Amino acid sequence: MMRLGDREAGSGSLAKIGIDVSRETSARLDAYVAMLREWQTRINLVSPTTLGSLWERHIVDSLQLHALKPKALRWADMGSGGGLPGIVLACALAGQDGAEIHLIESNYKKAAFLRAVSVALELPTTIHAMRIEEAVPRLPAIDVLTARALAPLDDLIAYGNLLLKSGATGLFPKGRDHQSELTDALRNWQFSYQLHDSITEPASRIIEITFDPLNQSG
């Protein structure tokens, strides 16, 4: 598994593991992590057990999604929570024409955090403080739909099938049970998929899925 080496590695360590980001993106990520740590003392944004490895467990794990789809500008993050991966993606895409990241989070305290970070760092985000089922039908066309540590793949597809059927690519990080989740989802949905290795955990995979509109109904 990828190691950053120390508890407060920071954005300066990204280049050591082959992730190249601009100086501006590095500064935004550092500021985001600082705000996350500050707000974590008041509300639970990430598991407390991961605070000592935020960069490895959360930031790098989110950045690798952008690396898989570097030309995608319009993203939707279901169940964004503390902004993973949505805020990280927004940090990477800030300043690019057409960048648009939709963060769906029904918990109002977490949504408040997402707004505070977005305003402070001038990120190209839209915060949807509502249930996923309410938000998805209201979203414009997007390039990539994602969610991290939210639900099994079958449920994620059910939540976002309107966007997937409209041409969005699904990009979903999954752990060591990724194959069983994929098998379950294929029982209920017709889609093409590709598995990408995770740079943070050898047993994990990122499942990329696409729907063939000709095979979809309803």
Run of helices and strands: HHEHEHEHEHEHEE
Quaternary state, please?
single chain
CATH superfamily: Vaccinia Virus protein VP39
Q: What would CATH call the class?
A: Alpha Beta
What general outline do the C-alpha atoms trace?
Answer: globular
Instruction: Give start-end ranges of low-pLDDT stretches.
Output: 1-8
Quick structural gist:
Helix content is 38%, strand content 16%. The chain has helices at residues 23-40, 54-68, 86-93, 108-121, 132-135, 153-165, 178-188; strands at residues 74-78, 100-104, 125-128, 144-146, 169-174, 192-197, 205-210.
Structural topology:
Elements: H1 23-40, H2 54-68, E1 74-78, H3 86-93, E2 100-104, H4 108-121, E3 125-128, H5 132-135, E4 144-146, H6 153-165, E5 169-174, H7 178-188, E6 192-197, E7 205-210
Parallel strand pairs: 1-2, 1-4, 2-3, 4-5
Antiparallel strand pairs: 5-7, 6-7
Helix pairs in contact: 1-3, 2-3, 6-7
Description:
The chain has one domain (11-215): 3-Layer(aba) Sandwich (Rossmann fold), CATH 3.40.50. Strand 6 and strand 7 form a beta hairpin. Helix 1 runs antiparallel to helix 3 (86-93) and helix 6 packs across helix 7. The chain has helices at residues 23-40, 54-68, 86-93, 108-121, 132-135, 153-165, 178-188, and strands spanning 74-78, 100-104, 125-128, 144-146, 169-174, 192-197, 205-210. It has 7 helices and 7 strands. The chain is an alpha/beta fold and 218 residues long. It has a 7-stranded mixed β-sheet with strand order 3-2-1-4-5-7-6, with helices on both faces. The chain is globular. Residues 1-8 have low confidence and may be disordered. The chain starts with 22 loop residues before the first helix and ends in an 8-residue tail after the last strand. 38% of the residues lie in helices and 16% in strands.
